[in-house]
Write a structure and sequence with these properties.
Blueprint lengths: L19 E6 L12 H4 L3 H6 L7 E4 L17 H10 L6 H11 L6 H7 L6 E8 L8 H13 L4 E8 L9 H17 L3 E9 L12 H11 L6 E3 L2 H9 L12 E3 L15 E4 L8 H8 L15 E6 L11 E3 L8 H6 L5 E6 H10 L13 E6 L15 H14 L4 E6 L1 H6 L4 H25 L2 E6 L35 E6 L7 E3 L11 H8 L13 E3 L3
Parallel strand pairs: 1-13, 1-14, 3-4, 3-8, 4-5, 6-7, 8-9, 9-10, 11-12, 11-13
Antiparallel strand pairs: 2-15, 5-7, 14-15, 16-17
The structure holds 3-phosphoglyceric acid and manganese (II) ion (2 copies).
Length: about 550
């Protein structure tokens, strides 16, 4: 599409050229105020004060389930689908659902990707690498089960599964049950004459699933186990491996060390060798891109691969449409086009985006419909503030919130950009550690960063829009249907490290907001996909007609 095709009409009532701070608090939902709601417990005067603007300038929106393109309303939101919806202004069927549909219809087994890897089945091994969980954020165990069954039915004779334990999108400790289910399935395949086994494993945050080039050692640990068959821990079975490693003090599913499964002679059962097929079965991109590069790129200097086997590799989805990575994939990703970011730069809106490493791709790549780079380099600037690496974030829960706040402040005060968009990761990243005290500290830091941004907006006569991509820090405990915390036999609560199903706040304000602007009352079901049109309006433009409707109206005062 040429630039002309992106031209938007002027908004009949709202002015152009306002400076807008667009703040996404990662993992910041709305929940009952109790001791497990870290946002409530933390001192968050800035975010608290916004509620006084309800219902005209503060409201809640949906950030989970069908509102963000997930299969059901029991699916919690996540950063990928949340930022996709925020930036694209429309609801797309997302990876989880696309894979479900392809498996249900059997189409996955007829398409190019599967036919490509199938060529290895007759004389080589099929390896499946991915997150073993039913979290539905990066992968789902039932999809792996169907893939295993389908591959065996279509001629795979030797299958090796390389598992990554979760404990982040699901309860810590649940990996044991998932491993048992998987073992059971593999045993059934063995009964049918397929040589099927788990070959290696490790905790997702310590093995393989890094993102945005934060720490390549994580990918290397996985490579050594999965490809080379080498790891510090060796076991006869995956269940034994997980149970033993979890018994170590402070061990948890997210950070289990790498292990390999060995035979009676102590030899690894499943290194990846020339001629093998490999499928990475996560549908979500961000934490598979680094491994995909290691598996696919001939030229690669991020770590010493020692061996670079000539394999047939396919991703569950294509993880990066710009890089065409990987080149083979089982299911086509959602085609998210004409995002708000692209419209805005073609309508004179200069855009700045910033976060720290762990969420940088969220506010750029996911925001822009899974697209890397600029739409127009002369109109945009994206800045990444390096995250701490090699530590869990409860150790430094303030993360880089203040640095992000300072950067946004400086850019706002420079008046060089019309939109200054940030993601403040604290509630989410520290919430995932399950450390309640640290999460409280993290929420306070996020609130302070918001304050810095508001102060700058005040000085330049701008507008702010503050929202979140999904819940996390507002609820840190597993609850029963009545909402009461679930206690174990010893009376301890079960910590919830995952996201939630909660609604998230959105607030608008600032001296530049026209007095008659208020949230409409006729969109009670509004979700994150309604935010793009809202922001486009605040930039003084009418949103494209196929976008979900704007949350605001302008009344004459
Ligand atoms: O990848 C992660 O860290 C979690 O699985 C989901 O968190 P995010 O969707 O907030 O990135
Ligand atoms: Mn998020
Ligand atoms: Mn998260």
């Amino acid at each position: 599409m040429g630039s002309e095709a992106f031209k938007l009409k002027d908004h009949p009532k709202l002015p152009k050229d306002k400076i807008i701070a667009l703040v996404v608090l990662d993992g910041w939902g709305e929940a009952n105020p109790d001791q497990y709601n870290c946002i409530h417990v933390a001192e968050t005067p800035t975010m608290d004060s916004l509620k006084k603007g309800a219902p005209d300038r503060w409201r809640l929106v949906k950030a989970h389930g069908k509102a963000v393109g997930l299969p059901t309303d029991d699916d919690m939101g996540n950063s990928e689908v949340g930022h996709n919806a925020l930036g694209a202004g429309r609801i797309y069927a997302q990876g989880a659902q696309l894979v479900d549909l392809a498996l249900e219809s059997g189409k996955i087994f007829d398409d190019e990707g599967f036919n490509y890897i199938k060529q290895s089945f007759a004389s080589n091994t099929l390896h499946l690498i991915g997150l073993m969980s039913d979290g539905g954020v990066h992968s789902r165990l039932d999809q792996l089960q169907l893939l295993l069954k389908g591959a065996a039915e279509r001629g795979a004779k030797k299958i090796r599964v390389h598992v990554l334990t979760d404990g982040r999108d699901v309860l810590d400790g649940s990996s044991v049950g998932f491993a048992e289910t998987l073992e059971n399935d593999l045993a059934k395949l063995r009964d049918k004459g397929v040589d099927a086994q788990v070959a290696s494993g490790g905790g997702r945050m310590y093995v393989t699933m890094d993102r945005y080039d934060n720490d390549w050692n994580v990918v290397k640990r996985g490579w050594d186990a999965q490809v080379l068959g080498e790891a510090p821990h060796k076991f006869k079975s995956v269940v034994e491996a997980i149970k033993t490693l979890r018994a170590e003090p402070k061990a948890n599913d997210q950070f289990l060390p790498p292990f390999v499964i060995v035979d009676d002679q102590g030899k690894a059962v499943g290194p990846i060798v020339d001629g093998d097929a490999v499928v990475t079965f996560n549908f979500r991109a961000d934490r598979m891109v680094m491994l995909a590069k290691a598996l696919e790129y001939e030229d690669f200097d991020k770590f010493d691969r020692v061996r670079f086997p000539k394999i047939r590799y396919a991703g569950m989805l294509q993880y990066d449409g710009e890089l065409k990575l990987p080149s083979h994939y089982l299911v086509s990703p959602p085609e998210i086009e004409r995002t708000s970011g692209e419209f805005l730069v073609h309508n004179g809106v200069r855009t700045f985006a910033c976060s720290e490493t762990v969420k940088f791709g969220h506010v750029t790549f996911f925001w822009n419909g899974n697209r890397s780079g600029y739409f127009r380099a002369d109109m945009e600037e994206y800045v990444e503030i390096p995250s701490d690496s090699g530590i869990p974030f409860n150790v430094k829960p303030k993360m880089k919130a203040l640095e992000i706040g300072e950067k946004a402040r400086d850019v706002i005060l420079s008046r060089k950009f019309h939109q200054v968009r940030v993601n403040i990761p604290n509630g989410d990243m520290v919430g995932h550690t399950g450390d309640i005290e640290a999460t409280i500290v993290s929420c306070k830091a996020a609130d302070e960063a918001v304050k810095m941004i508001f102060d700058a907006i005040e000085q330049v006569g701008g507008i702010y829009v503050v929202t979140a991509d999904h819940g996390n820090a507002e609820d840190m405990v597993k609850r029963d249907k009545k909402g009461e915390p679930i206690l174990d036999k010893s009376g301890n609560i079960q910590i919830l490290t995952s996201h939630t199903l909660q609604l998230v706040p959105i607030a608008i304000g600032g001296p530049g907001l026209a007095p008659g602007v208020r949230f409409r009352k006729d969109l009670p079901e509004g979700g994150l996909a309604n935010v793009a049109a809202t922001v486009i309006n605040l930039h003084g433009l009418e949103a494209p007609s196929d976008y979900e409707p704007s949350l605001i109206e302008v009344v004459d005062n």
